[in-house]
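Hey everyone, long-time lurker, first post.

I ran two proteins through the pipeline my lab uses and got sequence/structure pairs for each. Pasting them in order. The first:
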Amino acid sequence: MNHKYRGTVVLGFVMGILATAACAFAAHDEIPRISIAELKKLIDRKADIVIYDAQVKSVYAKDHIKGAASLPWKQELEESDIKNLPKTKDAFIIVYCDCGPGENDSADIASQLTGLGYTNVKVLGDPSIRGWRKAGYELEKGCSVTSCPEP
């Protein structure tokens, strides 16, 4: 193959990979965000909300927002995850991670939840759990049997 065309082919290949990666790690901007202050107010009011931590279980076990359950990111939620979700599809669900701007993991889990028919799902906006910690809001450590069971 001619060197001139090989460079074009390689460039095209790299561009294709980058485009695929961008789609795979899209921030799911269609999922509404909730601020740290808004979540804190809901918790203080004892609102009927379900909070999911999308980080790996070992990180969740170190500390997480008080009352949050572990729902680690995966490309596709499994039946074992789905059976522990709220029974009512209009449950107010908030998902968070520590992914930085775009909240990729939590936004992907939230998108999967909406795909399962949940209608009131939001993502805790960046700085998410880091901002929660910095604000000095309540965290808890460890796992309960239902929130962090070993596979």
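...and the second, right after it:
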Amino acid sequence: MNAITLNAIGNHLNTKIMNFLQVEPTYIISFEEIFWGGILVAFSMGIHGIGMLSVLRVNHSINKKFSAKKNLIKGLWPIIFASFMIIFVHLTEVLLWSLFFLWRNCFANGSLSFYFALNEYTTVGSKFNLPLNWRLLEGMISITGLLTFAWSTGVLFTLAKEFQEQGFVLFTRRHHKN
């Protein structure tokens, strides 16, 4: 082997070792990150609270309006409508985070910012990361998503329970007539 070949092999091995040992720059959590993360979590929870109360109110109004003409199919529509309302509330919260990321120049455009926020909020994750000085928010948005999905599940469970109880009453009435 000549010197050029040995030098090329050495450079190749050096590159492989350096890639293997690649270390991210030092990350230090900042007060600014904690402050804005707390604000975003608080606003998200506030939006969610108002949204879930709205879902329950609208569902109650719909059920009250159509209670005289109740059947199983008509009873299902309020739950479907409530599901769409819940999804809208979640997307509004994702939009809040996305707008913050745009404001802080974390992403080049709104589409990428919303995509990233949605994936982090649902804990799916993505191949994109926030700049190093905002990394803590990746975990905070995921925690917010977990909390709000649990809350939404509770609301939907309440509505489904009401629907099933109404369905049982209708079933009982129908079978006791005969």
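Reply from user beta_strand_b:
Welcome! Quick read of the second one: The longest helix spans residues 136-177. The mean pLDDT is 86.
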